[in-house]
Design brief:
Radius of gyration: 26 Å
Strand content: under 5%
Helix content: over 70%
CATH architecture: Up-down Bundle
CATH topology: Rhopdopsin 7-helix transmembrane proteins
Number of helices: 12
Oligomer: single chain
Structural class: mainly alpha
Largest sheet: 2 strands, antiparallel
Length: 358
């Protein structure tokens, strides 16, 4: 094997492992926490997790096999099924990201009327559209025999070689597919998240004005406390920008190279480097590994659920761990401190404000 093929195989193997583990954790959190299941975005995240998991156990391993063996990973019928899943799952996951961005836009811009605007029924309708949209494109491609093993991407997907007899129809189909999935999702992401960013900056400015007025009034405030407030103010302004950049940036970085390569392949008959084709496919697969962190695991509710599950599996109580940390840090038991036992909280004493007796 070429060095680039070995590197691509290791990269793809790492993507498979991370994608499986992270998406399984998201699924466990969804099933374990009833509060997450009650939320409307949870349906979109569940659908996205389902697509990522199915992609991780079907298409990614076969691409790895095709990359290592440099050959067809299965029969023609089996490859068509895998190609059908490739088109369906990729399209479905993109539209799920668009639905999540619309949900967050409504939640931030219309917070008081969010529950009346976005209900579980509306989420089910949106998910129904994503499934119908994805099924239509993947079914048309499979029934037209445009799906097969593509050597450039070392995977079973839309194949130009199998569509030589229907050149114009295949070009129109491919352009429509990427326009109504990648381009449409990118436009929705940019419009909704930029509006969210605008609202977040407006609220940050209001908080900054209140903070500065408070700092001016508190003349005797310690300089370190003042600097801490200013640093928190700066981090607050940057936090929203980082989150929005992560949502849009990961989508563009992961999917844009693959989509652009597909379009170039249609209109430029010249040869494309197979190493670049495999790399662009691996980048598209990497979105399945990054989605759990971008949309779920970095949020407070999921982190809290993961921590609770970890404590439950390790058979330890959060109170025990915090008690041990306090005792280790102090090294002694103070009469004015809060005593935490393994079973309950006892002996909570108020601080003694009386002066010491000489």
């Amino acid at each position: 094997m070429h060095t680039a093929d070995i590197a691509a195989s290791v990269l793809l193997l790492g993507i498979i492992v991370v994608s499986l583990l992270s998406n399984v954790v998201v699924l466990i959190c969804f099933l374990y926490n009833p509060e997450i299941r009650k939320q409307v975005p949870g349906l979109f995240i569940l659908n996205l997790t389902f697509c990522n998991l199915l992609l991780s156990v079907s298409n990614m391993p076969l691409t790895l096999v095709g990359l290592i063996t440099k050959g067809h990973p299965g029969g023609s019928g089996f490859c068509q099924i895998v190609g059908f899943l490739d088109t369906f799952l990729t399209t479905n996951s993109m539209l799920s990201m668009a639905a999540l961005s619309i949900d967050r836009w409504v939640a931030v811009v219309f917070p008081l009327s969010y529950h009346s605007r976005i209900r579980h029924r509306d989420a089910v309708i949106a998910l129904g559209y994503t499934w119908v949209h994805s099924l239509c494109f993947s079914t048309v491609a499979t029934c037209s025999s445009w799906v097969g093993y593509h050597q450039l991407y070392a995977s079973c997907t839309l194949c130009n070689v199998r569509a030589n007899g229907a050149g114009t129809q295949f070009i129109i189909f491919t352009v429509l597919l990427h326009s109504l999935t990648f381009l449409l999702t990118l436009i929705v992401l940019c419009v909704t998240y930029l509006k969210v960013l605008k609202v977040a900056r407006f609220h940050c400015k209001r908080i900054d004005v209140i903070t500065m007025q408070t700092l001016v009034l508190l003349v005797d405030i310690h300089p370190s406390v003042r600097q801490k407030c200013l640093d928190e103010q700066k981090r607050r302004r940057q936090r929203a920008t980082k989150k929005i950049s992560t949502f849009i940036g990961t989508f563009v970085v992961c999917f844009a190279p693959y989509v652009i390569t597909r379009i170039i392949e249609l209109f430029c008959p010249g040869p494309i480097s197979p190493h670049w084709g495999v790399l662009s496919k691996c980048l598209a697969y990497s979105k399945a590994a990054s989605d759990p962190f971008v949309y779920s695991l970095l949020r407070h509710q999921y982190r809290k659920t993961c921590s609770h599950l970890a404590n439950k599996v390790l058979k330890r109580s959060p109170l025990n761990s915090s008690s041990r940390r306090v005792e280790n840090s102090t090294g002694r038991n103070d009469n004015n401190s809060t005593t935490i036992t393994t079973n309950n909280i006892t002996n909570i004493q108020p601080p003694n404000n009386k002066p010491p007796v000489p």
